[in-house]
Amino acid sequence: MDIKNRISLLLLIIGGLAACNAQEVLTVEEAVKIALENNYQIKTAKNELRMDEMGVSPGQAGMLPQVTASVLDNNSIQNLSQTRVDGSEVERDNAKNSSLNYGVALEWTIFDGLRMFADHEQLKETQKLGEAELRQTVLGKVGEVMTTYYDLVQQQQQLSALDSTLLISEQRVELAQNRFTIGKASKLEVLNAQVDLNTDKTEMQRQQELHKNTKILLNEQLARDLKIDFKVIPEIFVDQNLSLEKLENQVVEENPELQAEKINKRISELELKQIKASRYPSVYVTTGYNVGRSTSELGFSTRSQSNGFNYGFGASLNLFDGFNQNRNEKIGKIALENATLAIAEQEQTLTSLVNTTYQTYLTNISLMELEEKNELIAKENLDITVEKYRIGIIPTIEFRTAQLNYINARVRNSNAKYQAKVSEIVLKQLAGSLKI
């Protein structure tokens, strides 16, 4: 069986093994799903959002009354020597006195310059900020998982290419040995073939090491057992229909980082409202029910008891605070201006990044098509070279050159597809349109 047929047989065997183990293939959709369920940073971001959600309440904003219950029990034992105005004297040792007071009180701020409403809106915006931060975390982690996943795909393709070149190198050693045995080749040709075979084996081992380490990295990103073994899909498919104009519009509308900056501006507006609320009076009402009881072995009254309601209202207004009110309002306005500038800066940064990444994406698409053609040319050249070497009409160095050209063309082709896919992932991540 010649080299060409043996390569075809090897590819058929690899294809059959892949079909038999189809249940072991981890798809990128499954990897993303596992990451969303297990990843520690995503879980942490979800918990932080839950805390923000629980904080959105009228009570947290100070809109509801405060009700407190209290109890106070005082006791004393005293020695008394007393001279009264009529000249009489009273002396008492170990005189006991006690008082007990308990009740319920309510205090409710009914007006504070509308600060409580601004507080409530700020709590809502804080929740929205948490949602934007969670989405940013999810997009970032999904992007990492997908990038690592497709890195494994290209490494798997490179392993396949190295398998093919190893087979060719083994056949070359065998052919060189046969030619040397019958006197048609020198020992040097056999040694060169063996050196090249060992070089290919070294490259294979290094590629296998990288492949295993990348699997461990992906398992870590999925927050699961690092020793779980799996396979990935055999091919990378790139979306070649991305539109720059559409991406730019999506960045403005959907990018979570930009949305977070817009929410921060809204929070700055509400903080300025809270500061301005101090210019208005604060009005509160109070009421309660109290029970009191006291006993004393001293004085004119030895026992007393009271119970009943109390109610009232109060108001306060800041008349002068060392010009802090004016100063705080000016600071709040500057903070709001900075928030507006941050939005403009973030939008420009993201638009610039989308444009540069899009140019890289177009270049990678072009290189992907070019390298695919180069691989076909290199394969045809290798087939011709193998036949010529088999009948002994070309030197060893020409055979090795054709062999290396083929393996390098396959590696460049798989890498070009991977780089194009990474550009696609980054663009969709920036635009907030990455499927999760």
TrEMBL record:
Keywords: Cell outer membrane, Membrane, Signal, Transmembrane, Transmembrane beta strand, Transport. Residues 1-22 form the signal peptide. It is found in: Cell outer membrane. Gene3D superfamilies: Outer membrane efflux proteins (OEP) (1.20.1600.10). The keyword Transmembrane applies. Its main location: membrane. It comes from the Bacteria. PROSITE patterns: PROKAR_LIPOPROTEIN (PS51257). Belongs to the outer membrane factor (OMF) (TC 1.B.17) family. This is TolC family protein. It comes from Flagellimonas yonaguniensis.
